[in-house]
Amino acid sequence: MTMPKEDATLTAAPVAAAVGLSDVAVRFRSKKRDVTALQDVSLDVRPGEFIAIVGPSGCGKSTLLKLVAGLLKPSSGEVRLGGERVNGPRHDIGYVFQRAALLEWRSARRNILLQAEMRKMPAAQARGRADELIRMTGLGGFEDAYPHELSGGMQQRVALCRALLHEPPVLLMDEPFGALDALTREQMNMELNRIWRETGTTVLLVTHSISEAVYLADRVVVMSPRPGTITELIEVGLPPERAYAETLGRPEFRDATARIRGLLGAAPAHG
Ligand code: ADP
Ligand code: MG
Q: What pLDDT, on a 0 to 100 scale, did the predictor assign at position 10?
């Protein structure tokens, strides 16, 4: 007897979370002191989801990203990437930091292609992908410029292209726009929203800006002061495509930002 189609879908294996943390704790021990950076952290991130992480300084946000990248081992609990336990540094991620960290003696394009050289990607494929990313991030015309000839926003675009060159399923961003002026930052937010939709990449973004978190994310992780725990997971409830000014005026945006401000005990008027 053949199974009806409906039953086949019911018995299909569930899609593995893109990123999973179960009861994770991180303790740093030294002769002088013991620091519990993270405690009781559990989180399942859906493939293609955009997660923003906010919380006071020192609450373990960077530590959380390092766990996902496999640069740090949890003291207890488990971290998974694409359903597999993370046991060491992972190469199937992209990482963007506050500083673009570009090589001054290489052009924008050759900084992006550094990723391909390190991974020994086929050159033609890497060049094609670099061109696509250069177009997508609005760097067209600046491919041959050197880092000192680029604005801060453009340098971060180069860093983003470099992080996306190998098409990682998961992109980790640690305060990537923290050093940019407010207008450039808004522009980068709009571009990141579009790039996220075009690439389908799962994103974990650490930010100090509540409005940046809500504008970009599907869900916002709000963390407590050290030892960092997840205070609340906020479902933003906005559609994926987000026109900037229109989104900031929407009730979902205002409700989520007000809720997060309340949780963080922040003053009401700040971004
Ligand atoms: P955040 O990114 O939220 O500001 P971090 O994740 O960088 O916080 O750090 C969380 C806590 O763990 C801080 O108190 C920090 O001092 C401590 N910490 C981070 N890395 C180390 C380390 N390698 N050794 C000892 N303590 C660390
Ligand atoms: Mg940090």
A: 53
Number of C-beta neighbours around residue 170 at 10 A: 21
Cα separation, 173 vs 252, in Å, equals 24
Contact (CB, 8 A) for 266 and 210: yes
**Cβ of 57 less than 6 Å from ligand 1:** yes
Give me the mean pLDDT over the 32-58 stretch.
Answer: 96
Residue nearest to atom 20 of ligand 1 (CA): 63
Q: How far apart are CA 218 and CA 215, in angstroms?
A: 9
Q: Is residue 149 located within the same domain as residue 246?
A: no
Burial class of residue 216, CB neighbours in 10 A (0-12, 13-18, 19+):
buried
User: Side chain identity at 58, as an amino acid letter?
Assistant: G
- What is the residue range of 151's domain? 102-167
In terms of phi and psi (left: phi > 0; alpha: psi -120 to 50; beta: otherwise), the region of 52 is beta
Residue 59 Cβ < 6 Å to ligand 1: yes
Mutate to test the pocket of ligand 1, among 62, 173, 175, 222 (most ligand atoms within 8 A of CB): 62
pLDDT of residue 91: 87
Domain-embedded: residue 4: no
54 with 187, same domain?
yes
Phi/psi region, residue 74 (left: phi>0; alpha: psi -120 to 50; beta: rest), is: beta
- Please state, rounded to an integer, the average pLDDT across all residues of the chain: 92
Integer CA distances (angstroms), 157 to 73, 135, 164, in order:
30, 11, 10
- What is residue 2's DSSP assignment? P
Residues 32 and 108 in one domain: no
Q: Are 250 and 214 in contact (CB under 8 A)?
A: no
For residues 195 and 160, the answer to whether their CB atoms sit within 8 Å is: yes
